[in-house]
Amino acid sequence: MSPRRSPPRLDRVVGRREPKKRVLIVCEGEVTEVEYFKGIRDYFRSLPVDIRNCKVVGLGRDPAKLVAYALSERDKKDREARAQRDANIAYDEVWCVVDVNEHKTLAQALITARRGHVNLAVSLPCFELWILYHFEDCVTACDHVRVGRKLRNHIKDYDKHLGRDFPFANHEVARERARRADPEHCEPNRKGRNPSTNAWLVVEVIRNSGKS
Question: Of 39, 114, 184, 188, which sits with the fewest C-beta atoms within 10 Å of its C-beta?
C-alpha cells in the first residue's frame, strides 16, 4: 500500500474531534461505485463503527484523470491543514477505484499513483465483478457484458443501481471469492488477471477508518 505523504507535522486540535482516519475515495464510475461505497460506509456505521469522514466522489473519468484529481484534492487539504495548523483537515489515505476495460491510460495512472502515494483499486474487467462476488463465484475470464448478465440474476432489472436490499453484509464472503480468483491481487497499484478485483481493500480502509 502506498505510504501516506504527510504535510509538515501538525498537532491535532484537542477537543475538536477524535483523531479518526480521513479517507478520500475517488471512483471512475458515477453510479454503482458511489452507491456501493456510500452504502458500505453506512453499513459499518450501523454496526456501529465510528466513521467520521469518508468522502466518496464519482467522476466518470479515465484512470489518469482520476489520479490527477485525487492528487489535487489531497494537496489542497494538505495546504488547508498547514494554514489552519490542524492535521485533522488532511486526508490520511486517498484511493482511486478503476476498471481495466479498454482504458489506454491505466499504465500511466499506476505509475503516477505509485509516485504520488495514491492507492488504486483495480478491477478486471469491471467494478461490477466486485458486486457480483457478493452473490456468487466467478473464476473464469469474462467481460463486462457477461458480468452484467450474471448480476441480473440477482438484482432485478439491474441498470447500475444497487437497490435498497443490496447485501452489504456479504462483503467478507465477496473478499474471499475475489482472493480465490486471483490470490496475488491483494495490494493496490497493480493490474490483476482476468477476472480480478481488489476493491475489498477499500472496504477494509472504510471499516478501519472508524477505529482509533
Answer: 184
148's enclosing H/E stretch is helix 144-151
Q: Tell me, what's the pLDDT at 53? A: 77
Burial 80-90 (b: 16+ CB within 10 A, else e): ebeeeeebbbb
155 has pLDDT over 90: yes
Dump pLDDT digits (tens) for 95-121: 999 999 777 899 999 999 999 999 999
Tell me which amino acid residue 199 is: A
pTM of the shown model: 0.89
Q: What is the CATH number of the domain that holds 114?
A: 3.40.50
Instruction: Examine the pLDDT at 148 and tell me if it is beyond 80.
Output: yes
Q: Which residue reads 485525487 in cell numbers? A: 70
The phi, psi pair for 26, rounded to 5°, reads: -110, 120
Q: Note down the domain range covering 144.
A: 22-208
Confirm whether 176 is domain-assigned: yes
